[in-house]
Amino acid sequence: MRRFVAVLLVSMLAVSLSAVAENGVNRSLPLDGTGIASLQYADVVHGNGQFEISLALDEGTNITSIQWITQICTNNLVCRAPVTTDMDTEDGLTYNATLHSQMLDDMQFENHTTYLNWIFHLYSEDESSHYLPADGFFHDNWKVWSDCWHISDYVAEERKKIWGGTSTDCQFRTNEYGPVWETGIADVQFEEMVYGGRDYAMSISLEEDSDVTSVQWITQICINTGVCFAPETNEMSSDDGVTYSSQVDVNETAAYINWKFVLHHEDGSQTGVPETGFGWKVWSDCWWDNGVWGGPSTECQEEEEEEGLPGFAAPAAAAAIAMAALMARRD
Question: Which of 5, 252, 254, 285 is deepest in the core (most CB within 10 A)?
């Protein structure tokens, strides 16, 4: 048994790598000659739910108990150590087990479940036992993919993220936060999400005894066409010389907003925060990026499907004509 568990642990790497070639296709094994008459389970794993399995044995079987050995692989490309669950039975023929929600990752960020592997350990009356399949997780095993999964694969010789499943809840982008330590800025306050068609407000507080006389907020809005508008300079207002605020109009098809600050000092000098590039990035509630939809809202997806313009082709063309000299493609 110890040897087999060790084999299972080693095989986790092989499983995570083999997933790339399968791309969301569930896998099941034939039951003929195994002693199992039927097997019932859902055809999709839900990251915030539970997964139930039920099997019926052949009449006259000598199997007395069954263990269900499962392995969860997550969207951060890691497969966890296998977990053994004793299956319940009342009549010795039908066995049931449940993988509870705490065993499956919540639908948050990259830890969402990619797929679930499993095998069985069958015990017989003569105290012998065997695994089904015999070679465990190495090659053939049962596998069910989640409703929202992510893998990395090579597309046209370039490694890219591939998303799949019936849900987009696990598809995410991470907000980025600029440095404020020793910049003269004590605090930056803003919403953690951008909403298309609404104003986006910004407020900062300066450190005590600051020599800053004015602050500019440099913003850049990137839209779902994959292009970014030219940066805009916004003069921030202040009533006390300590707290500065401003707001910008957000394009209805915004994917995210970038920004930085420029601090103007009493001696006429200025400091960029950060010195180069944009330090902050906040994603919208409905974005399209590198062939993937994301965000808690699907409103922009619905509009796109109704218009029948993949990738927002029409808005992109109009924007390109109007802003050709000013636009910069985002990274």
Answer: 254
